[in-house]
Amino acid sequence: MNINATLISQFVVFFILVLVVMKFIWPPLIKAIEERRTKIAEGLAAAEESVAAQASAVAEVDELIKTAHLEAANLVGKAQQQADSLIAKSKEDSKEVGQREIDAAHAKIEAELNQVKESLRKQVIALSIQGASKIIEKEVDETTHAKMLDELAKQL
């Protein structure tokens, strides 16, 4: 066998193999590689969009948290104001009730004082009648002199 014929035949077989590969295997392989490259590029773009969306969502959540904190602070402030106003109203109501009770007690004391004064007047009148009757040693008519003694007691 001649080395040149073997070499040429191997070269022809190799050339045919290269043609078959270039015609039937290479294009689908290149197409699959391109599809894979496109999918990877789309995946990277989607990942970048996801990162941007996540950053946006985090910023939105932070803003919502700040808003919620402000609203909570406002609600606490309003509740504190209402509690303060209720406490002030309760204090004022209790002062009014206390003042009414003091006024009622003063009125009751005044009425009792008047009753005591009246009682004292009656006792003074009775003692005056007894004293007068002993002085003049004769019976004094209580009904006829009662008015005069009442006026005398009022002057006392």
TrEMBL record:
It is found in: Cell membrane; Endomembrane system. CDD domains: ATP-synt_Fo_b (cd06503). Belongs to the ATPase B chain family. It is a single-pass membrane protein. F-type ATPases have 2 components, F(1) - the catalytic core - and F(0) - the membrane proton channel. F(1) has five subunits: alpha(3), beta(3), gamma(1), delta(1), epsilon(1). F(0) has four main subunits: a(1), b(2) and c(10-14). The alpha and beta chains form an alternating ring which encloses part of the gamma chain. F(1) is attached to F(0) by a central stalk formed by the gamma and epsilon chains, while a peripheral stalk is formed by the delta and b chains. F-type ATPases have 2 components, F(1) - the catalytic core - and F(0) - the membrane proton channel. F(1) has five subunits: alpha(3), beta(3), gamma(1), delta(1), epsilon(1). F(0) has three main subunits: a(1), b(2) and c(10-14). The alpha and beta chains form an alternating ring which encloses part of the gamma chain. F(1) is attached to F(0) by a central stalk formed by the gamma and epsilon chains, while a peripheral stalk is formed by the delta and b chains. SUPFAM superfamilies: F1F0 ATP synthase subunit B, membrane domain (SSF81573). The lineage of its organism: Bacteria, Pseudomonadati, Pseudomonadota, Gammaproteobacteria, Cardiobacteriales. This is ATP synthase subunit b.
